[in-house]
Write a structure and sequence with these properties.
about 625 residues, 5-stranded antiparallel beta sheet, 7 helices, binds 2-acetamido-2-deoxy-beta-D-glucopyranose, C-N_Hydrolase, signal, hydrolase activity, Biotinidase/VNN, C-N_Hydrolase_sf
Length: about 625
């Protein structure tokens, strides 16, 4: 009797944990899942993770893209068999083992589950009833499947924007993924590269009036604007939605990053692991995005040196940007590219101050006359100098001249033997920074193109543009600079709502990235939008000095030019910052033809008015 009572009590209290339509919040879980190929192992892990999520009172758990089936395919007959038998766990003979097992786990744990699978649709057989079959053949799709607490399949979404994936077909019609829940939240959902496009990423929110988005992904992080957590957080911010992002984890190929974000409040929890990881992230999500109450975990950082093992690709359009090297100074200038005007205010300084003595790194590879003999001489050394001029080295200074203490000094030389690398630059171990303006078309890894409008600064490993958006192979401290002030204002054509799609034709995101390959927290910057008559002005401002930045600015997508050829590269300055005087603070020459000059003038006036306010 007692045990029966206890059991009843436990059952009641367990189901009481579920969120209801009246609650102000619900509990979400996302899984960062380490990629492995064995389906049986994955299925077992998934079931355990579903259970873990339920034990932590999650109402919904989201899994990443293609981390369950990979080679295998699943049929998801949502217009056929599933209409009469919506719960695969109750009709196991009709369905694939995967649907049956996940259905059973969702049912047993009374939790909504979103998985991603490779879906097969065999249009040569009558079972394809209710399906759109343009050709009598076999189709493969990249598909999200949603289960409710009873284990019923309640939604199926096919990826619209494939990232390569040449064996698969994009959704035959651009159907949005949307599902309702018993806790009063309606979710939109889509997959990975879809995030970059008007349909579905903008449309599902703006047309369907949705405040909560589920995202399954296997993202290939790209510097400087599109690393995983960076763009997830920026999307949640700009769209003002709750964003449940589950990422496949395979750092060796560049996939990592998951989080739960709430509008302008930023990450309730987020991770960007540089090493193989499976991890369940759980957070209480306010139903009104951004209205966070109570404690949150926030971003969980991996140390920057762990990120050495995370492969990062580089935005191939950087050479097409209008750029300018930044110096350790106070600078205030404008860059213009077609219909984008960027105003920069920067106060940047080196880490260790600019006072004497100066140190210079030398690399030497040559002949030396020593005791009347030619002697081969190879070296990588750091020496003290009197001034910035290399001729003032080596200098023997006395104690009154400098207080520099060298706390850490490590010199690695790769030299003769099997290899000699003539591009090795011992004296070049600090990041340079460039300011950039861009309005044009970029390529996404050669697999698609899309319009972009950007005002940003980013780190480079050298003086030339091809070194930008890159990271040194191994992290070392004090290679970035200190930004005491950083304010970037972008004046751009105002977004226009496409009335057919019921979605904006462009979108602007606050982007930032630090040495841990994570964005700044939302309280560390201010992002504002002002609509003027003919322009929208977005400003992105640092709230406090920061010394770990790789990128910062306003990154926008313009959807109208998607599919066009990428913008060609252009010339970039490679001035020597130690000798050239500061350039004037006018738009760079060659950045605009006469047509664009007119709009540039217009934009400058608007900016001027704005800043005067
Ligand atoms: C599709 O169905 C046909 C007819 O049953 C069958 O012959 C074919 O092997 C199926 N194709 C696949 C890929 O399952
Ligand atoms: C799950 O979905 C099925 C089919 O739509 C429905 O009959 C059932 O009531 C739902 N269960 C819950 C708990 O919402
Ligand atoms: C959109 O949703 C908000 C609340 O989330 C509501 O106030 C508004 O009326 C809705 N608009 C439409 C067009 O459904
Ligand atoms: C990075 O990868 C190397 C080689 O695969 C491994 O030895 C090292 O432990 C990894 N470092 C971290 C921090 O995971
Ligand atoms: C030489 O050094 C550069 C810069 O570190 C590196 O990218 C390149 O791979 C090296 N080449 C060889 C042959 O080691
Ligand atoms: C590196 O920076 C830290 C703080 O950012 C400082 O404490 C340390 O002294 C610096 N080290 C060197 C070698 O400049």
């Amino acid at each position: 009797m007692l045990s029966l009572l206890l059991l009843t009590f436990l059952c009641v209290s367990y189901s009481d944990q579920r969120s209801t339509p009246e609650d102000d919040s619900y509990v979400a879980a996302v899984v960062e899942y380490q990629v492995q190929s064995n389906v049986e192992t994955n299925l077992r892990n998934y079931i355990n993770l579903i259970q873990d999520a339920a034990f932590q009172n999650a109402d919904i758990v989201v899994f990443p893209e293609m981390t369950l089936t990979r080679g295998n395919s699943v049929t998801v007959p949502i217009y056929g068999l599933l209409k009469d038998n919506p719960i695969p766990a109750l009709a196991p003979e009709l369905y694939d083992e995967i649907l049956v097992s996940i259905s059973a786990a969702a049912r047993q744990n009374e939790i909504y589950v979103v998985i991603n699978v490779q879906e097969i649709l065999n249009c040569t057989i009558p079972q394809a009833e209710g399906e759109n079959c343009p050709e009598q053949k076999r189709y493969l799709f990249n598909t999200n499947v949603v289960f409710n607490r009873s284990g019923a399949v309640i939604d199926r979404y096919r990826k619209i924007n494939l990232f390569g994936e040449f064996t698969r077909t994009p959704a035959l019609t651009p159907d949005l993924g949307v599902f309702e829940t018993d806790f009063g939240v309606t979710f939109g959902h889509y997959i990975c590269f879809d995030l970059m496009f008007q349909v579905p990423a903008i449309q599902v929110v703006e047309k369907m009036n949705i405040t909560d988005v589920v995202f399954s992904t296997m993202w290939f992080s790209e510097m400087p604007y599109l690393t995983a957590v960076q763009i997830q957080q920026a999307y949640a911010h700009s769209m003002n939605v709750n964003f449940l992002a589950a990422g496949a984890n395979n750092p060796r190929v560049g996939s990592a990053g998951s989080g739960i974000y709430s509008g302008k409040a930023g990450a309730l929890v987020s991770i960007m692991p540089g090493q193989p990881t499976t991890r369940l992230l759980v957070a209480t999500v306010p139903k009104v995005p951004g209205e966070v109450t109570g404690n949150i975990v926030g971003p969980i950082y991996d140390s920057p040196s762990v990120q050495d093992n995370l492969t990062l690709i580089t935005d191939p359009s950087l050479p097409s940007h209008q750029t300018r090297l930044l110096r350790n100074d106070v600078e205030d200038f404008v860059l213009v590219d077609r219909d984008v005007l960027c105003h920069f205010r920067v106060r940047m300084s080196g880490r260790e101050g600019n006072t004497a003595p100066f140190y210079r790194a030398f690399i030497q590879d040559g002949l030396h006359v020593y005791a009347k003999r030619n002697v081969g001489d190879v070296g990588c050394v750091i020496v003290a100098c009197k001034t910035e001029d290399p001729k003032s080295c080596v200098y023997k200074f006395d104690d009154s001249e400098g207080q520099t203490s060298i706390e850490e000094l490590e010199i690695k030389m790769t030299s003769y033997g099997k290899h000699y690398n003539s591009t090795l630059k011992c004296n070049d171990i600090k990041y340079r920074y460039r300011a950039s303006a861009f309005s044009g078309v970029r390529s996404f890894s050669g697999l698609a193109t899309g319009g972009a409008r950007v005002c940003a600064i980013f780190a480079c490993t050298g003086d030339t543009i091809d070194t930008c958006g890159k990271r040194f192979d191994s992290y070392s401290r004090n290679t970035t600079v200190v930004f005491e002030q950083l304010e970037i204002t972008a004046a751009v054509p105002p977004p226009i709502r496409n009335s057919d799609l019921q979605a904006s034709d462009s979108k602007y995101y606050p982007i930032s990235m630090t040495t841990s390959i994570m964005p700044l927290k939302n309280e560390q910057f201010a992002f504002d939008e002002v609509s003027l008559l003919l322009v929208n002005v977005y400003s992105m401002r640092l709230r406090a000095a920061t010394d770990e930045l790789y990128a910062f600015g306003v990154w926008g997508r313009r959807f109208e030019t998607d599919g066009q050829d990428p913008s060609p590269p252009r010339e970039h300055d490679i001035e020597d910052l130690t000798t050239t005087p500061a350039p004037s603070t006018t738009p760079s020459p060659g950045s605009s033809n006469s047509v664009h000059k007119f709009s540039a003038v217009l934009l400058i006036i608007s900016i001027f008015l704005l800043l005067k306010q």
